[in-house]
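REQUEST FORM: STRUCTURE PREDICTION
Request ID: SP-0412
Submitted by: Lab K.M.
Chain count: 1
Length (residues): 671
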Amino acid sequence: MAIVPRISLHFLILLYVSYIPLSLAKDETYFIYNGFHDKANLRLDGITEIHRNGLLQLTNLSRQEVGRAFYQFPMKFNTTSSLSFSTNFVFAMVQQVKNLGGHGIAFTISPSRDFSHAQANRYLGLFNISNNGLSTNHILAIELDTVQDPEFQDIAMNHVGINVNGMKSNESAPAMYFSNKEGKNISLDLMSGNPMHLWIDYDEAEKLLNVTLAPTTIPKPNQPLLSTPIDLSQILLESMYVGFSSATGTLASDHYILGWSFNKSGPSQSLEILRLPQLPRQGKRAIPGPMIMTFGIAVALVLITVAGAAYILRRMKYEEIREDWEEEYGPHRFSYKNLHKATKGFNDTELLGEGGFGKVYKGILPSSNVQIAVKRVSHDSKQGMKEFVAEIVSMGRLRHRNLVQLLGYCRRRGELLLVYDYMPNGSLDKFLYSNEQPNLSWVQRFRIIRGVVSALLYLHEEWEQVVLHRDVKASNVLLDAELNGRLGDFGLARLYDHGTNPQTTLVVGTVGYLAPELTRTGRATTCTDAFAFGAFMLEVACGRRPIELPAQGLAEGVILVDWVSECWRRGAILDASDPKLEGNYVVEEMVLVLKLGLLCSNAIPAARPSMKQVMQFLDGDADLPELPHDSVSFGAFTSNEASDFMSFPFSQAYAPFSSMSSTDSILRVGR
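STATUS: Completed
RESULT:
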């Protein structure tokens, strides 16, 4: 009789010991978080934090930052009979400026949680320029992307993609969901600030990956957004981590995860939507109770009566011009009060540059801490201002990584204020000609040239309308924090529909970059932009301005395109390269840029290549045609013509080219 309890005790001990690894294995197989009140099983990285109410915030409005959250235990793949898995989570993206935010969130399965070498912005904190696309990454990512990046062939700003080992999606689709009730797809705005539900299901038997998106107000749709055949056995390793990575760029968004469920051995559990934490209020306060509201109204009436005169005087300080036709442009208009505060009252300490056409100030928007550049431009509101503002708003919708983002405008009395994204490294011409800036390497210069080509190709052919920049030059190419070139200053730009002819007939631009036909016809085309870009390429490669006058201490004036063509005709084109480079460049690339600069400088507009052809030449996808040998094929000027042109009536009021700032050098005789 005494043996029985001892056997039972041994049995219970064995049962208890065997239960421990089973429970641990269960933790590593599936989990569910209806809010993240306990972060014990999550590893946070970067700027990620968990709010008191259980809300997981991956990123905030800090720019060029990364946030990650991974389940701290690895999942075992390739050790069981199936690689199938299922997960669903609820997320939200809150933009900092209407229709502007970045960059996105990626659900990630990775062999490691170490992303110390990954970059922010378009790489979503997962890859960098060196390892992007390498098969050795063994990473599967489902991206929720809000920025269209041509480099990765993104289909739209607002899309969902399935990515393997890099940022170029294997398959992607605009964000939408299938309505079971209506039997059709309905679009979703990822940056709406509303919570959304995403399901990811992989069936090993069918080798099929399904991604389904929907608002949190409806059940899981019957049809997925993406359904892709894929063999994960070639991608996933034995031990993998699951989690989220998110990043911001020049613009930022608040990226949140409200709840998350994962299962390695079957369908993931459904989240309890009503239990999920609430998002922070976006600039709104809770509505007070009736008594508080009544008291507040009474106090407000008294204050308005007493301080009415002072209020009116203060309003006059920030008075703006607002007309009925501007109502449709509301989201693109900044208040003068905010711009005044952002620039410290347009204080000279915030001045970035000035010239004959206006001043540019650095500012920080008080509501979002976003850095901006504000250009103050004088104008006559009676002459085409409605059409001008309409075009400014249209160009504010341009989205390209090599364009300076035009965020909006403001009108006040006799001036127009244009608000741009701030570029910390200033303009390219300062790096080319100022001894106070470090010398740019050839790798950096070639990348800048390719960036400007990409921007012009987007403006000329890839956007919904044709955009003529009309003032391509080094001082209008700004450099971001990574010294990437961004084409800016759209003050002279003009838009027209594809397949039609532009109607501009006024000569505008900068001496040395103006195509010869402009002085005869005044008509700007994509060919005149190509000519200016040719002068720009030679300027970057040679480190010299398009026109150097005797006033600069030279024995005689030098026209850059004539000098480069002369070097080419005597078989020594590399003599034209910038001496500051000290011969440290790829010879083939330097020769290509110099010849391409001459080709774009052809006096015959039809002989100049389009930006698409220029990109093909630079990428090595097409061979550069043979250059003509006659001396009159290139450029706008002979030495005599240059002198004659500088005596043109509209250029007499301007200083020699060498003393012009980026704004002084603009020749404007009308819009």
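NOTES: DSSP finds 13 helices and 31 strands in the chain.
Reviewed by: T.R.
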